[in-house]
Amino acid sequence: MNRKVLVVDDDLTCRIMYEVFFDEHETLSASNGIEALKILEKEEGIDLVVTDYQMPEMDGGILIGKLKELYPNISIILISGSVKTSSSDQ
């Protein structure tokens, strides 16, 4: 089944990687949450949003809150490449 996926990440390399990963589906991309919301306003039928957590202008956490409010039936995957270490790990 062909689905429409919106990938949201400020890193161009990551967006390209996700587009390759979801190659069987129609894939759109945005570099931040604000851009993603603009795409969602214009595009119908987006089934899945894959978003990074840390991004400028609007991070993934805020984007998810808005998605749940405006598009309650859309599926969401949150991804973070950020790694936090505790002082005992250093």
Question: What is the strand and helix layout of this fold?
Answer:
Blueprint: E1 4-8, H1 12-21, E2 26-30, H2 33-42, E3 48-52, H3 60-70, E4 75-79
Parallel strand pairs: 1-2, 1-3, 3-4
Helix pairs in contact: 2-3
Describe this protein with a few key phrases:
90 residues; alpha/beta; Rossmann fold; four-stranded parallel β-sheet; 4 strands
Care to describe what's here?
34% of the residues lie in helices and 22% in strands. It is α/β, with parallel strands linked by helices. The chain has one domain (4-81): 3-Layer(aba) Sandwich (Rossmann fold), CATH 3.40.50.2300. The termini are far apart.
Mean pLDDT, all residues = 89
- Apparent shape: globular
Count all strands and give the number: 4
The poorly predicted ranges are: none
For the terminal residues, how far apart are their CA atoms?
A: 46 Å
H-E string:
EHEHEHE
Number of domains as seen in the coordinates: 1
- Rg on CA atoms, Å: 14 Å
Q: Helix fraction?
A: 25-40%
Strand percent estimate = 15-25%
Q: What structural class results from the helix and strand content? A: alpha/beta
CATH superfamily: Response regulator
In which order are the strands of the major sheet placed?
Answer: 2-1-3-4
CATH T-level topology: Rossmann fold
CATH architecture label name: 3-Layer(aba) Sandwich
CATH class: Alpha Beta
What about the largest sheet?
Answer: 4 strands, parallel
Helix tally equals 3
Concise overview:
With 90 residues, the chain is of the alpha/beta class. 34% of the residues lie in helices and 22% in strands. It contains three helices and four strands; from the N terminus they run βαβαβαβ.
